[in-house]
Structures are given as C-alpha cells and as structure tokens.
Amino acid sequence: MNRLLACTLFILAVIVTAASCFNKGRSEGALPKNVSYNFHIRPIFSDKCFKCHGPDPGHREAGLRLDIADSAYAPLRDTKGAFAIVPGKPELSELVNRISSTDSAKVMPTPESHLGSLTSYEIALVKKWIRQGAKYEPHWAFTTPVKAPLPE
After folding, report:
1. How far, in Å, CA of 65 to CA of 59, rounded?
2. What pTM did the predictor assign?
3. Which end of the chain, N or C, is less packed with Cβ atoms under 10 Å?
4. Which H helix or E strand runs over 28?
5. Are 132 and 36 in contact (CB under 8 A)?
6. 75 φ, ψ to 5°?
7. If residue 71 lies in a helix (H) or strand (E), which one and from where to where?
8. What is the tens place of the pLDDT at every residue in 92-151?
C-alpha cells in the first residue's frame, strides 16, 4: 500500500511539474514579437469564432465573417457605427470588446455556444495582432514554399 501511494504521489508530482513548464510561456508578458494570423490567430478563431462567424453561410450569425479580411473590417450590420476589427486600434474593435466582456449578453463566444471563453493569453494575442495591423494571411496550403538558406 505504501509503495502504491508513493508511486501515485510521484506521478502526480511529474504531472504538476510538466503542466507548470508547459504554461510558463503563456503569460501575457511572453507574447510573440510579431503575431501571425496563420500561426497564432487563425487557430483561436477556428476554435472559438468560425462556428458562428466563419465560411458556412448556414450557421453565420450577424452577417459577420472573421475568416475574410474584407468582412472583418466592414461596418457591423447590427451595431451602427461599429466595426469588428479596426486595424491598428484594438480599443475601437468590437471583437476585442466582445471577447473581453464579462457581460453574458455581450460576451463572445456566447455561453450557449459551449465553445468556452478565450483565455487572457488568447485575448492578449488578438489585441496585439490588431494593434500590429490585423494582417490576414492566405492559408499556408495556398502559399508558395520558400527555400530556407543553407546553414554555413
């Protein structure tokens, strides 16, 4: 019994240590210097936003598509004078207001969607991406590969 308890405690200690190591780089101070739409933002939008604001017109809410720059930068249909994304200005971007909100009537994704809220790290990434110009990138499958220089 003592040996089983010792093994269980050891395994628990390993799991806790591994989890803390994994999350070390996820603090807001550890944001990447340049935020990439394809590498950082598209996965967040895919997990939390595209269900209601993606390419499927049958499930699209409020006429907003976040997978296409022209739609994301356009005036919002339901909120007069507002824009989902204002490149360079996260404070004017309704997207930031919604993902940061604690009001269940405003927050995105909605609690009814069961998609879960964005983490503080994900919100910080989206804000930094918008501050850096909210540049959309074509999907990696549609870009020409570039050969890396050979090491010396």
Report:
1. 11
2. 0.76
3. C
4. none
5. no
6. -60, 145
7. helix 69-73
8. 999 999 999 999 899 999 999 999 999 999 999 999 999 999 999 998 899 899 898 999
| CB contact at 8 A, 51 and 113 | yes
Place of tokens 């405690």: 9
Encode 96-118 in three state secondary structure. HHHHHCCCCCCCCCCHHHCCCCC
What is the CA angle 63-120-31, rounded to 5? Answer: 105
The Cα 126–Cα 31 span in angstroms is 10
- Joined together, the tokens standing for residue 105 give 């009537």
**Token pair 């933002």 is at which residue?**
41
Tokens of 98: 């919604």
pLDDT tens by residue, 46-104 = 999 999 999 999 999 999 999 999 999 999 998 889 999 999 999 999 999 999 999 98
Query: In angstroms, rounded to a whole number, what is the distance separating the alpha carbons of residues 4 and 1?
Result: 5
